[in-house]
Amino acid sequence: MHTHEPLIKMEGVSFSYPGGSPVLEDLSFTLSENNRIGIVAPNGSGKTTLLHIIMGLLTPSAGTLELFGRVMKSEKDFRDVRRKVGLLFQDADDQLFSPTVLEDVAFGPLNMGKSKEEAIALSRQTLAKLGLKDFEEKITFKLSGGEKRLVALATILAMEPQILLLDEPTAGLDQDTKKHLINILSELNLAYILISHEFDFVTATTDHMYTMENGKILVDEELHVHVHEHAHRVGAHPHKH
């Protein structure tokens, strides 16, 4: 059933770390079904904080957050919806903890009550989709940075989320892996928020590009025009300026 409720709705959200000035201030933001939003902003502008608030890892000092039409008030509220929201951490090592790749990817589905057979089938399917078919038995901590990043993405996709939050997904990736990631993201039928400082990558993978300043999300119209031209002229191929 498709409702027209936004998937994420934030109104008047503010947040400061203890003793610091506000990182987010009176921020409002909406993510609707099939929205693919990129946020390009300098370090320290509150991008990661924003994702952590959406996941319930941080609590705002003011404002409201709704996920799937429900106001998030307590840890229990977040527990119920977290399985529908996949967060790709900035550092893949924060995400991977099992000895082998297959165990890592199967962990989420098992945790969500799938049988061992179902979890393994789903994990294999997800790995194959990401071009990681031969990775099942590999030792997670021996993978390269780029491989870890893709396996971390597999651990999230195997949980079949409805929203993805991607925090600097291209960090430490070489050009080929980036291209691969662009293809993967363009084939996903999911709403996502993608944080990056790589303009070309965001252009190739999102429909709208925002920036952050003074604790708020800004829709930068000039940025939009620029993105639009590129999207048509160059298609989904990364390119350099």
Summarize the structure in words.
This protein is α/β, with parallel strands linked by helices and 241 residues long. It has one domain: Rossmann fold. Helix content is 37%, strand content 22%. The strands form 2 sheets. It has a 6-stranded mixed beta sheet, sandwiched between helices. Helix 3 packs across helix 4 and helix 3 packs parallel to helix 5. The longest helix has 14 residues. The protein is globular. The N and C termini lie far apart (43 Å).
What keywords describe this structure?
241 residues, globular, alpha/beta, disordered C terminus, Rossmann fold, four-stranded antiparallel β-sheet
What would a concise description of this structure say?
This protein has helices spanning 47-54, 75-82, 101-111, 116-129, 145-157, 175-187, 199-205, 221-234, and strands at residues 8-15, 24-31, 36-39, 62-67, 70-71, 85-88, 163-167, 191-195, 208-213, 216-219.
